[in-house]
Amino acid sequence: MAKALITSALPYINGVKHLGNLAGSLLPADIHARFRRQIGDEVLFICATDEHGTPAELGAAEAGLAIREYCCRQHVLQANIYRRLNLSFDHFGRSSSRQNHALTQHFFRRLEENGFIEERVLHQFYSHEDGRFLPDRYVVGTCPHCGSQRARGDQCEDCARTLDPTDLIDPRSAISGSTDLEIRPSRHLFLKQTALVEELERWIATRTGWLSLVTSIARKWLDEGLQDRCITRDLDWGIPVPKPGYEGKVFYVWFDAPIAYIAATQEWAELNPETRDWRRWWQAEDVEYLQFLGKDNVPFHAVSFPCTLLGSREPWKTVDIIKGVNWLTFEGGKFSTSERRGVFLDEALDLLPADYWRWWLASNAPEGSDTDFTFDRFVQDVNNDLSDTFGNLVNRTLAFVTSRFQGVVPGTGAPSEAERQLEQDLAQHLDALRRHHATGSLRKAAEDVRAIWRLANGYFAAQAPWASFRTDPDRCRVTVRTAVNLVGVCATVAWPFIPSTAETVLASLGLPQGIPAWPAADSLRLVKAGSTIQTPPLLFRKLTQDWAEEQRNRFGRRTSAPWRAGPPS
Ligand SMILES: Nc1ncnc2c1ncn2[C@@H]1O[C@H](COP(=O)(O)OP(=O)(O)OP(=O)(O)O)[C@@H](O)[C@H]1O
Ligand SMILES: [Zn+2]
Q: Which atom, in ligand 1's list, is nearest to the CA of 292?
């Protein structure tokens, strides 16, 4: 049995995430995890909240809570939303955990012992008005490379180049807007990534199957000359630096966050130490490790985190496949947590059940390029795919069995050429679907699922059982028996995408609960003649253009920001 370790980029702690975060990392990871479980692989799907750094501190201050209490509450809030979205994490941990403290300090010590840590004095912005050192992203100004006026001290939003705050032209505090900044010296520790470049190049050369988006971002970092990375910060909240003279400093959030993938696995193992061993996943040869994330996270996963792991000189599992995606945009603009622009996940779930969102975001995944979410497209696609294609198939088929056969799957009648052709076509679609899942092409996989739904509808329409019911009862019985099983296959392939609806349908066919196994050769014979089926209630309600208009007015025009301190996390 193959072993797949799957991680989703860690959602930042400050507030509920938006549809972009779901589309960029959480959902593709979940769909892949579900697919791998369906084909019988052993899967460990890990995620956690990313809790350190200044945005969390500012969020806590804004909420009038102690930072620990704030993170605790926000973690529970996010965990509940992900449960409602049916994200099937094996564990949803926290980067502030005891395990991550210990492990991050462990990595630091190993890196230091191996000569990959260097002490330097940094000159950092101190804001008099804010009474604190300003972390990189809390200094904003003009980008020296592209002239963008919304560059942050760590990265330019427009040209994506990484920056140092002192590179910025006309710097100001992102917290108060103050330009009363003073540069003060402070001692910091650097991870000597430059000493690991050759090793990193060799490591990247051994990775196969990376997307061009990911490879090009990683190459850009290497070709522009990899820099040593400052891994400490002048903050209170975070993982303390275990080194004399560094009291009052903590590790940079991007140093400890990826380590939390491992630490969250340790949390998972500690919940049931008799049966779970985190080393089987992180220090094993037979694991395939896949990471899912948005494109801004690629450098940290393709370069920085591998440097930490390689530099430790310990046998850690490094990533095999990085599935990075482009941006989901919202009605022609950016999603933004800080500006409260877009649809947030709690609001989405209050509007419609998870499966509507899951389906649209997966079938329109921002893979080849950015994708714009609009309520018009959402309504159109959801109606076409979910209501008119899948919902209609399930309803017309099962209602027919109920009305003509009292809900009992009919037994007589031999398959004919139509069924043989159907099996052949189905097998081809299933092959394509499995291939697209395996390469993580979500849009194409959704297209294959849609094609299977259409195939089923086409079969039912062409065989017209309502006509053969009188003219050729045996033909009608074969058609109905086959169509009921086709509904089962349609729900099975839909399961990674729309698990809740798929499970409702499978239950109404009397098929076993739990993970529906990948369709095998007997997939059109699983629901046996003589078994009783139920017609499920309406699976998807149809959305109207008025509804789209209403939502566009509600979300598109919103500008108020409940949390305005600083740029997006
Ligand atoms: N609009 C988007 N489209 C696709 N992926 C996104 C989008 N916004 C964020 N992501 C991804 O979501 C994951 C979690 O991100 P995180 O919680 O750090 O939020 P973020 O990137 O700070 O978003 P925001 O700035 O809107 O708060 C990351 O992998 C990130 O790349
Ligand atoms: Zn720029």
A: 29
